[in-house]
Write a structure and sequence with these properties.
The structure is a homodimer.
Chain A: E1 5-9, H1 20-27, E2 31-40, E3 43-45, H2 47-54, E4 60-65, H3 72-91, E5 96-100, H4 111-119, E6 124-127, H5 132-139, E7 150-155, H6 160-168, E8 171-176, H7 182-191, E9 196-201, E10 209-211, H8 214-219, E11 226-231, H9 233-240
Parallel strand pairs in A: 1-5, 1-6, 2-4, 2-5, 7-8
Antiparallel strand pairs in A: 2-3, 8-11, 9-10, 9-11
InterPro entries (chains A, B): 4pyrrol_Mease (IPR000878), 4pyrrol_Methylase_sf (IPR035996), 4pyrrole_Mease_sub1 (IPR014777), 4pyrrole_Mease_sub2 (IPR014776), CobI/CbiL (IPR012382)
GO biological process, one term (chains A, B): cobalamin biosynthetic process
Pathway (chains A, B): Cofactor biosynthesis; adenosylcobalamin biosynthesis
Chain lengths: 242, 242
């Protein structure tokens, strides 16, 4: 009998924010693959593997190292090798899982491997997890979207005109990978002080920080793991009084 | 000592999709409030309470009944009564929780009570949960957003022009409360057969159903708990080959 390969979502970083379903899948796995990055020679970082240790998972943890590069060719090579390994192990009756932070369907490039396995007739399952923007909203006790509002998730590429359009048309923009568009967002805050800016850094980790103080945010250097949620409070109030 | 009041997110419906954090908060609560609706006289429906029973939660479960009406006045009256009750119970040292399906920050009108409590200086905590659109994506093994794509969550109010705009500009639209705009979406499918339409009904329940067959979807009557995810596969392919 062959077991499906589980693509497990670990949630945003706090071990307690994993679902029971993901936890059970990991507890039953013989081998669990986790993405890692090499920051410096001999310094391997895998936030996923750290989480598995906290959750006391017993299966063998294998890291696959993703090159930090915008060129996808190298990452695709890593993923093809991973696919070949997993194909053989699954055939040999091993229970396999791939564990990723956040949710496996939200900006998770490992989905490439899931698609490859599926195209090759190997059974896969995808388990949902809490995305970072949902964890951020809860940490600040925000009502992220209500009534007729629309949520829009933006991966670090935004213009001032687009923000104007969203904020005047009932959208709540969430900007991920904020470090990629820090100047644009900080300039926008300067020219549009009437909106509410909720900033989050290293959400659900020991270094978690959030603030909605505009003066503070204008000076801050945004690290890689940061995001911003913006509200047009005037439109919110008009809607909720209807 | 007074305990914070927890606003607990139960996730989309499958008991296993609750987080460890939400489960622990519920296990420690003396009283848990759940929203319910009265469908017919003597027929009370609370999907949240049903989930708590499945999870074997021992605290007292109190239902509060929300009128099914677009007029918010009646719901606000219910929420004000709930606020008054919880304020007294919390003062008396009770451990309280409010349990809602999905995520407490995504279209959850009970957030009104959380805001009232906070305005009155009563400590509250909001725990994140899996929203239905994340559970839907995982059930169909979809890569919901990748690379430069933006996700937009729409609560049942959409025009054909807006869909055109989103689908030609790297947005992945997710339409919730699909029954409210069934005609518009079905006409759009008819006139835009080149896009991929992923339809979901009663996600994460025993009645879960999903399909991406356009001929089938054009004839289907969409129930209240349904949603649609639409992809412009051509733009996806162009992006991923870059």
């Amino acid at each position: 009998m062959s077991h499906p390969i589980y693509f497990v979502s670990l949630g945003p970083g706090d071990a307690e924010l994993i679902t029971l379903k993901s936890l059970h899948a990991l507890q039953q796995a013989d081998i669990i693959y986790c993405p890692s990055t090499v920051r410096e020679p001999d310094k391997i970082l895998s936030r996923a593997a750290t989480l598995l240790h906290k959750l006391d998972i017993k299966g063998d943890i294998h890291l696959f190292s993703l090159p930090m590069s915008k060129d996808r060719t190298k990452a695709i090579k890593v993923y093809r090798q991973l696919f070949e390994k997993m194909r053989l192990e699954q055939k040999a009756g091993k229970r396999l899982a791939v564990a990723v932070e956040g949710d496996a369907g939200i900006y998770a490039s490992v989905h490439y491997v899931l698609d490859l396995l599926e195209e090759n007739g190997i059974p896969v399952e995808q388990l949902p997890g809490i995305p970072s923007f949902i964890a951020a909203e809860a940490a600040a006790k925000l009502h992220l979207i209500s009534q007729k509002e629309r949520l829009v998730i933006i991966p670090g590429n935004i213009t001032s005109d687009e923000l104007d359009m969203y904020l005047s048309h009932h959208h709540v923009p969430v900007i991920m990978k904020l470090s990629q568009c820090a100047d644009i967002v900080q300039d926008y805050m300067e020219s549009h002080p009437q909106y509410s800016y909720h900033y989050f850094e290293n959400i659900s980790t020991a270094e978690e920080y959030h603030s909605s103080h505009q003066a503070e945010l204008k000076r801050r250097v945004f690290p890689y793991f940061s995001l911003m949620i913006i509200f047009n409070e005037q439109i919110r109030k008009d809607n909720s009084s209807k």
